[in-house]
Amino acid sequence: MQATLDASALKPFTKALTCLSRYGEDLAIYATPESLSLSTTNSSKSAYCRFKYARQFFSKYSVGTKDAWVDVDEDDDSQAVTGQLLTKSLLSILRHKTVEKSVERCELSIVEGDGTGEDQDGLESKLIVRLHCKHGVVKTHRLLLLTLTSFLAPGVPDSTNESHLTVGPRTVKDMLEQFPANARSDPQLLWNFAESEVQVKTFESSLDAKGRSELSTELTISVDEFDLYDVYSTPTTIAFHLREFNATIAFAESMSLALDLRFTDPAAPLFIDVEGDNADTLFVISTSQVPGAHVPSQAPSNNSKRRDREETPNARIKKSAKVVQRADAATMAQVARSHVAHATAAFTVTPTVIPTRTRTLFLPASSQMSAADEQVLRETGLGVEDMTAEELTMMLEGEGEELEEMEDVTFAATQSSDDQKFQPLFED
Amino acid sequence: MRFRATIENVNTFFRIIQAIEKLQKKCIIKFSEEVMSIICNSETNDGGIQVWSQIKVDSLFTSYRIQSCADNVITMALASEALLAALRSASQPPKGSAYETEEIIMKLAKKNDHAVLTFEIIGMSRQGRKMRVAHDVKIEVLKPADVANLKEPMCPEPDVHIILPPLQKIRPIVERLRPMSDFLAVRANNNGRLQLAIRTDSVSVDTEWRNCKNTNQAPSDSQNQRDPDADEDAARDPDQLFSVLVSTKSFFKFLNSHVVSTTTIACICQNHCMILYVYVGDLADAGGVLTFYIPGQLLDD
User: Fold this and answer.
1) Which GO terms describe its cellular component (chain A) (predicted)?
2) Which of A155, A366, B77, B186 sees the fewest Cβ atoms within 10 Å?
3) How high is the pLDDT of residue B235?
């Protein structure tokens, strides 16, 4: 992959990296001939951020050469170049104080390891950052690029009961400024969208540290502050953590772009779109269970998501705790001990896909497991929380399924709250 | 028990709390009909520093209404950080951003079975629409027995009263001294000389200010009755330096009140303690004064 950014494109690019660094530590690069995507997920898999740049964003852009390997998962079989590295490695290069003043253009290229030469491991590639500065100075940085092990991506939400809001970044920032920001804590806020006003207040779930409960803040503003206010059914209440949301707002404000928020029911994640010139960004933040909140009723399979562009399979996965999911052999072992989560979201992508259904066995209020265990369970993305003991054994003893074999399976018929039988996707 | 007031001068209120927030996690505020007292008297404070302050309610509030069984006095303990955050939001940084506050109402309320001090801020958003923010600071109302135990420290009559140079000027110096020594000697004489000194095995630093003003009188505080016996003072050698050794950290924390001080008078009781009167607003008005008590440290040498 080769991409060249001129000085004016470098600024938003760097801002995007700053935002990505606030979401997660690892940066996943996914380059196709049409666009370059940079994405990351936070450590608890409750927030995801993806920046997609169309080829027009760059002054020069090309992906794929005769030697490049073909990415197996691309739907349309075109060549895609992928890699992963620590966001801060790239960010520290581009954020260097001399960059703004002297860089005229920046060339990014991904050179894949070809098994020959000094590299021990032929599969390792490098991201080369070449900064062409004034006075003929060229600074070259070579960063080791790890292979993208699993590409986590959220599914597109169902739109029947979707609420859609658009708001300017300044407005949201002004609102959130009223809430005391604590460097060490990551508070959650509860948003109540009513007919004529929106109420935001500090939200403490029982799991939050007690220190913060000294002060609680509530803000009420008119819905007129929003450029677009289309709530499916009022009142709707959602709650989520501020940390990543603040990163998104900072990005939108620095680019003077509006935030497009979409959410469905309170348990589903919050989707935020920020659209710019030739750049399209998506943020997904998982929401927390709000005790006593009004949950509009809906069919169980509503939250199945399908990401069309990404290399994920046509999986239909039910709600689970995480914004993104990944299952691998290691986490399966921990499954037995975990439980309940108060964060919710649903997407998946992984070699192994397991259908789940509406909350069944483990109710959020259940005290069967501790919060930490909860987390672990959710992290597996296996939907164990929704299984019976039998299903669990079957899953643990069965073998992983292959991605390629998955067809367009719709689980709707097999999924109902009453049906507790586990329907494996494939027979081994 | 009822309490309600409109905060007129939120910036000053904010700065007062800013001055003492770093001293102690939880502070005590006593509201009476005429005076608001802020007390930080925890034994665990650095260097034993204590703050007892009195602010006339008229200088900060309007529509002040208080009612209680204890002579219309309400004493509460609350987290200073929380109060500071609420006031910060109410005073809104003058960045020209966000909104302008139209009204700030502070009142005692009960939320979720817990007593809180609510700050209700009615303001305008950037686009000119009404915006309402409410902060609830959890408080603990003190029992009358505990209130009776609150007593300002007793000090002997100070040996010297001197008006300190602007605290902003002293602060950077003490900031430098802090990592070098845990103890700081503060000396002053009746001839306008002020000295700050540290002495350790590796380093000794002396800083001196001259031409400071002395004063014979301390603020008319019922706790510190002093009789300004001019004759007695004249008999003493005006050049004699009176000193006290204090914890550098505690002195530095006192210097946080630079955000609010107009005039500060330091009173030294030789080898015993130091009392600092930080005036909020005009000296003449005596709208409010923060009184810092810093005990002297006794070293073996």
Assistant:
1) checkpoint clamp complex
2) A366
3) 57
> Which residue on chain B is closest to A173 by alpha carbon?
B98
Give tens-digit pLDDT for B117-133.
999 998 887 777 888 99
Q: Which residues of A touch B88 (CB under 8 A)?
A: 180
Query: Residue type at B143?
Result: K
Whole domain around residue A374: which residue ranges? 356-417
Task: Note the pLDDT tens digit of each residue in A28-62.
Answer: 999 988 899 999 998 888 899 999 999 999 999 99
Contact A174 B99 (CB under 8 A): yes
Point out the residues of chain B with pLDDT beneath 50.
Answer: 93-98, 220-231, 233-234
User: A214 — contact with chain B (CB < 8 Å)?
Assistant: yes
The pLDDT of residue A21 is 94
Chain B hits for A222, Cβ within 8 Å:
129-131
CB distance from A183 to chain B under 8 Å?
no
Pair B137, B165 in one domain: no
Instruction: Please indicate if any CB of chain A lies within 8 Å of the CB of B132.
Output: yes
Distance CA B97, CA B93 (A): 8
Chain B residues within an 8 Å CB radius of A213: 138
Supply the pLDDT for residue B47.
81
Whether B82 and chain A come into contact, CB under 8 Å, resolves to yes
- Give, in degrees to the nearest 5, the angle at Cα B247 between B246 and B251: 85
A256 Cβ under 8 Å from any chain B Cβ: no
Q: Does residue B154 form part of some domain?
A: no
Q: CA of B33: how far to CAs of A48, A180, B61, B103, B140, in Å?
A: 54, 31, 11, 21, 20
Nearest CA-CA distance, residue B57 and chain A, Å? 24
Return the pLDDT at B112: 83
pTM here? 0.72
B257 SS3 class: helix
Yes or no: say if A203 and A186 are a contact pair by the CB < 8 Å rule: no
pLDDT attached to residue A206: 53
Indicate whether B210 and B128 sit together in one domain: no
Residue A123: per-residue pLDDT: 58
Nearest-Cα residue of chain B relative to residue A175: B98
**Local structure of B16: helix, strand or coil:** helix
Q: Which domain holds residue B251?
A: 160-295
Inter-chain CB proximity B134 and A218 less than 8 Å:
yes
Asked whether the beta carbons of B162 and B242 are under 8 A apart, the reply is: no
Residue A331 lies in a domain: no
CB contact under 8 A, A221 and B99: no
Structural domain contains residue A132: yes
**Model pLDDT, residue A288:** 86
Q: Does A291 touch chain B (CB under 8 A)?
A: no
Give the pLDDT score at B148: 87
pLDDT for the residue A397: 59
Please tell me whether residues A91 and A161 are part of one structural domain.
Answer: no
Enumerate the β-bridge partners of residue B198: B205
Query: Closest to A215 (Cβ–Cβ): which among B86, B125, B126?
Result: B86
Chain B residues in contact with A216 (beta carbon < 8 A): 111, 135-136
The CATH code of the domain that includes B66 is: 3.70.10.10
